[in-house]
Amino acid sequence: MERTIVVGDVHGCIDELEQLLAEAAPGRGDRLVFVGDLVAKGPDSPAVVQLARERGALGVRGNHEAHLLRFRQPDDGGKPLKPLHRAVAQALSEADWAYLESLPLTLPLPEHQALVVHAGLVPGVPLERQAPDWLMNLRSLDDDGRPSRRVDDGEPWARRWRGPPHLIFGHDAVRGLQQERWATGLDTGCVYGRRLTALLLPEWRLLSVAARRVWCEPKAVD
């Protein structure tokens, strides 16, 4: 049976990604999908992007890909990058940039009644009206249902999501693995020394490997 392997935030952790894929053992016809934030903070972002594009992986754009791509947009006037993004930008090939530019904000997996997004969706808002900022940065909803980037600004948006579709997302390393009826969060903080996690479909089985080390201090979570 062909499978879909959805991988949480990698953040340049190439060794952990290779170990996770070795354990998942993709077969011919299996599909590899990333929830975004392939890059930044970890040891080798270009290697992660190269692996993704050479394997024909699908995925969505995370907030860290967005930071890099804004640097390339002429109408932003070459916006300055943070040092952690500058180092990645200088190391990417043109093929890597083309791959990152091709990543959409959402990726439907209709055969699983699922949708992949980096951060989340605001419940009650049609998909076509969801702001890109929410799709790449959402973490919480306050008591009135207003979206927030902050973990301490309400409860997890996924707790209020009523599908279908089932949303598969990343971004929220502070909360870690989230398993709600209609949403699964896969950012288990590999770059912060915790774990890299994948969701295997159609069996809806979780697979994870331990981080090799702390690559970035958790205070840098964004």
List key phrases describing it.
single chain, 222 residues, alpha/beta, Purple Acid Phosphatase, chain A, domain 2, 5-stranded mixed β-sheet, 13 strands, 25% helix
Summarize the structure in words.
There is one protein chain. The protein is α/β, with parallel strands linked by helices and 222 residues long. The chain has a single domain, classed as Metallo-dependent phosphatases (Purple Acid Phosphatase, chain A, domain 2, 4-Layer Sandwich), CATH 3.60.21.10. The chain has six helices and 13 strands. The strands form three sheets. The chain has a five-stranded mixed β-sheet with strand order 3-2-1-12-13, with helices on one face. β6 and β7 (147-148) form a beta hairpin. α2 (45-54) crosses α5 (94-102). It starts with a strand and ends in a 12-residue tail after the last strand. 41% of the residues are buried. The model has no long low-confidence stretch (mean pLDDT 94).
Main-sheet strand order equals: 3-2-1-12-13
- Amino-to-carboxy terminus distance: 37 Å
The CATH architecture is 4-Layer Sandwich
CATH class: Alpha Beta
The largest β sheet comes out as:
5 strands, mixed
The CATH topology annotation reads as: Purple Acid Phosphatase, chain A, domain 2
Order of helices and strands: EHEHEHHHEEHEEEEEEEE
Average of pLDDT: 94
- Find the structural class using helix and strand composition: alpha/beta
Number of helices: 6
Choose one word for the global shape. globular
Helicity, as a percent range:
10-25%
What's the domain count? 1
Number of strands: 13
For CATH, the homologous superfamily is named as Metallo-dependent phosphatases
| Low confidence ranges | none
Radius of gyration: 16 Å
